[in-house]
UniProtKB/TrEMBL annotation:
Pfam families: adh_short_C2. This is DER reductase. One of its GO terms (molecular function) is L-xylulose reductase (NADPH) activity. Keywords: NADP, Oxidoreductase.
């Protein structure tokens, strides 16, 4: 659908492979960090493997890929924009989401620090924080009608987000229409956090 875009398939937890692949793929002006995993476990049952995988993908990969891309932007002297896909779970505790909520909270703070440090280089950094999005992962984790009903009842707009709801918010934050927006979190949650 988008000529000129070449996908790179790699394990973002492998820093050396990521450095080689992303480093050779530039130059960049825009970056969206969207990779994530959601391994849902009760707090008392969180495993080391689930914790490490979540930290590697939800936090470490964002930090590393952003470093690679931001260094290229700075070296080229071009302004840029980075959008990190976070979650409403960064700001609200959810049962069985101890690791997911924590990694997304860390991502929000990382994004603010990035905005502060990259701003002088004319690189803006923001997050979008959606509610449940009807992706494959969203359907897997929220297919139980009892579980989904309890969440939907807490969303004033009465529904989960569709992929386009998130994409349109990302496009806004990447565009010049948000030229004075950095270090912000754009909630795409149907009002979940105000309920």
């Amino acid at each position: 659908q988008c000529p000129g875009i070449e996908p790179l398939c790699l394990d973002l937890a492998d820093w050396d492979a990521t450095e080689a692949a992303v480093g050779a793929a530039g130059p960049f002006e825009l970056l969206v960090n969207n990779a994530a995993v959601a391994v849902l476990q009760p707090f008392l049952e969180v495993t080391r493997a689930a914790l490490q995988r979540s930290l590697d993908v939800n936090f470490g990969a964002v930090l590393h890929v952003s470093q690679i891309v931001a260094r290229q932007m700075i070296a080229q002297g071009v302004p840029g924009a980075i959008v990190n896909v976070s979650s409403q779970a960064s700001q609200r505790a959810l049962r069985d989401h101890a690791v997911y909520c924590s990694t997304k909270s860390a991502l929000d703070m990382l994004s603010r620090v990035m905005a502060m440090e990259l701003g002088p280089h004319k690189i803006r950094v923001n997050t979008v924080n959606p509610t449940v999005v009807m992706t494959d992962m969203g359907r897997i984790n929220w297919s139980d009608p009892q579980k989904s009903a309890a969440m939907i009842n807490r969303i004033p707009l009465g529904k989960f987000a569709e992929v386009d709801d998130v994409v349109n918010s990302i496009l806004f934050l990447l565009s010049d229409k948000s030229a004075m927006t950095t270090g912000s979190s754009l909630m795409v949650d149907g009002g979940f956090l105000v309920s």
